[in-house]
Amino acid sequence: MLSLKNTSTPHATRSGALIALALMLAACGKQGATLGEGSSEITGSAGAAGAHQAHRELMKCDAPVATLALVENSNGYTVSSSYNLPSSPVPLIRLLAQQSGCFRVVDRAAGLKATIKEQELKDAGILRQQGSTVHKGKGYEAQYSLTPSLSFSEQNAGREVGGLMAQIPVLNKFVAAAEQVKLKEAQVALLLTDNETTEQIAAATGSVRVTDLGMGGLVVGKLGGAGGAGWANSNEGKVIAAAFLDAHNKLVVQVRELAAKDLPPPVATKSGNKG
Fold first, then answer.
1. pTM of this structure
2. Nearest partner of 47 among 228, 271, 269, judged by Cα
3. Second label for 7, Cα 20 to 30 Å away, from 23, 49, 99, 101?
């Protein structure tokens, strides 16, 4: 008589659980992340050298159309999650706005406060008066303002999936693993206002949903690392970053149709070129 022994290892059991959960979620239509056709990485830098290591699907403009200030949403941001996310998504969006080349970004946040402090120190006689390279009255106005909104939720889908698996032979062994399943969803909007006329001239929404299997932080979907301003430290942050990238790309489609305003002189570079 042939004797069959259970040779499965804890690793194999865990892998089986992941596969089973993925199949169950696919059947429920709840698996994966949708952000156009691409991933959701937000990384790299922006500056005098242009956009460096920006996401390959980041939509761009051939030239800036206006100076832009990012404005905190006065209504705050709705975040339902156990993870301690950064308090504001504005730094992340500022990186997107500068990398796209659609705007010249002016600071109305911590950088502006630091500038005002330097002027106060100069007025108090603490800083040098002669030869100073920072003078009053040379700041650039924000011709447009961009206001973000954010709604993030984390839903416990483990109970629903676990209930289904409990009724299926073999898969019922993985009910405990199923209880770790979370659905993470972010819905965002970007609102663009002309500061001269107060008219809202463009608006765009973005959204993304992923399935977090809760095992070692695994996320099922196309989310890559979402760098910048602390948003890469959790799956929650990556979901939010993905949604803002989605909204930004939709906004660029509208911005490309706007006539450029009269812009201030571009920043000088070491090579002697400007822009």
1. 0.67
2. 269
3. 23
